[in-house]
Design a protein that fits this description.
The chain is α+β, with helices and mostly antiparallel strands. The protein is 18% helix and 48% strand.
């Protein structure tokens, strides 16, 4: 009887461990010396809402590297949807945002300061670079005095950034 109870306990423990592994996605890469390295990917969602206006940011993070989507959705005003990629530099998230607005594809830098579980949008003078990307003229003078920070969501809802908006962006930008 003790053997059966111990076997059941071990089986439950193994199933429990398997479920925890599924919740934290990980990838394995091979290092130059042939040893595998496990890299954890974490997903994050941030949201700002004010009435019918919202800003949504969803990304996957691998170490300091960021990949994801951002959507500015303003009631009866032009919004934007697009892909982000970038990096954390200390507490500053520096992104390249390629987005669709009014049927046109554009690209610009977007910086956020991460503080107290929130992302504060950076504001500063911008200029067009030689590749037609809007960049900060002087990144050292960016101000993070945002009064509408994005709050971190503990659980990212399915379809947080609407799939139809992503599909429309991909169609206009010729990305599949």
């Amino acid at each position: 009887m003790k053997t059966i109870i111990a076997s059941i306990f071990i089986a439950v423990l193994m199933i429990s461990c398997e479920n925890k592994k599924e919740q934290t996605p990980a990838t394995t890469t091979e290092l130059p010396n042939g040893n595998p390295e496990i890299v954890e990917l974490t997903s994050h969602c941030y949201l700002f809402t004010n009435g019918k206006d919202s800003i949504r940011l969803s990304y996957t993070q691998e170490n300091d590297e960021i990949d994801g989507w951002m959507n500015y959705d303003f009631f009866e005003k032009d919004g934007s949807i697009g892909e982000i990629d970038g990096k954390f530099f200390g507490d500053t998230l520096k992104l390249e945002y390629e987005f669709m607005s009014e049927g046109m594809i554009s690209e610009q830098q977007v910086y956020f300061l991460k503080k107290d579980g929130k992302l504060f949008h950076g504001a500063g003078e911008m200029k067009m670079d030689k590749d037609s990307v809007m960049i900060y003229s002087n990144p050292k003078q960016i101000k993070f005095e945002d009064t509408t920070p994005l709050s971190h969501l503990d659980n990212c809802p399915e379809n947080f950034i609407k799939q139809q908006s992503i599909d429309m962006y991909k169609k206009v930008s010729n990305r599949n």
